[in-house]
Specification:
Blueprint (H helix, E strand, L loop, with lengths): L15 E3 L5 E3 L3 H26 L5 H28 L15 H15 L9 E2 L4 H24 L6 H24 L5 E2 L9
Antiparallel strand pairs: 1-2, 3-4
Helix pairs in contact: 1-2, 1-4, 2-5, 3-5, 4-5
Length: 203
């Protein structure tokens, strides 16, 4: 386990950053964009978890049960994203077999989570806008960051090989975040913000 004894190093003042194992690359590099966006995604999930904890303080027990289960999934997701970020921050030649990484079972686990949450939800018959409860809205926001992370990974994969499990996991995660936002909104009794294609301005 690394010990962070000093936060600032001044080594990045020239626009470069160090990868795991020592190599330095420009901060504009596609690899940095990819794992930086993964880090941003984990941060967005962390904010949603904080909102989730606050929202359920006075919620009924059924909603608290959903929130506890959802928080367990989100906690696991943050660990998985940290594993992904450390993998992306390491050049292939520097990787060791012991390094944690995204595996095929991770996307499959998200599919199980999606199916589990969908079981509680009404069928979606139109597009919806992000919103509802605060944790629901923040999970929608995290979903959009997941989509951006996926685009960054596609860009990186055009330059060098990436495990297909990485893109598959992030794609499933964006789906899971969408369903999880609906799940917590439903548990908290928050109506969907349905898309109205014939919407007119108020007044």
């Amino acid at each position: 386990m690394p010990k962070l004894t000093r936060i600032y190093t001044r080594t990045g003042d020239d626009g470069s950053t160090g990868l795991v194992g020592g190599p330095r690359v420009r901060k504009s590099d596609a690899r940095i964009e990819a794992y930086g966006t993964v880090d941003e995604l984990s941060s967005a999930i962390g904010v949603a978890r904080a909102a989730l904890a606050g929202a359920i303080a006075s919620a009924p027990e059924a909603a608290r049960s959903v929130a506890r289960e959802l928080d367990e999934w989100l906690a696991w997701t943050q660990d998985a994203l940290f594993n992904l970020g450390s993998d992306l921050a390491t050049l292939p030649a520097q990787r060791s077999a012991a390094m944690p990484r995204i595996e095929a079972g991770d996307a499959a686990a998200l599919e199980r989570a999606i199916d589990r949450a969908q079981h509680d939800l009404p069928v979606l018959d139109t597009f919806i806008h992000p919103g509802g409860s605060l944790p629901g809205a923040l999970l929608h926001q995290a979903r959009t960051v997941a989509r951006r992370a996926e685009r960054a990974l596609v860009t990186l994969a055009e330059r060098e090989p990436l495990s297909p499990e990485v893109a598959r996991y992030v794609n499933r995660l964006s789906d899971a975040l969408f369903v999880w936002s609906r799940w917590i909104n439903h548990a908290l009794g928050q109506a969907e913000h349905r898309w109205n294609p014939k919407s007119a301005p108020p007044g």
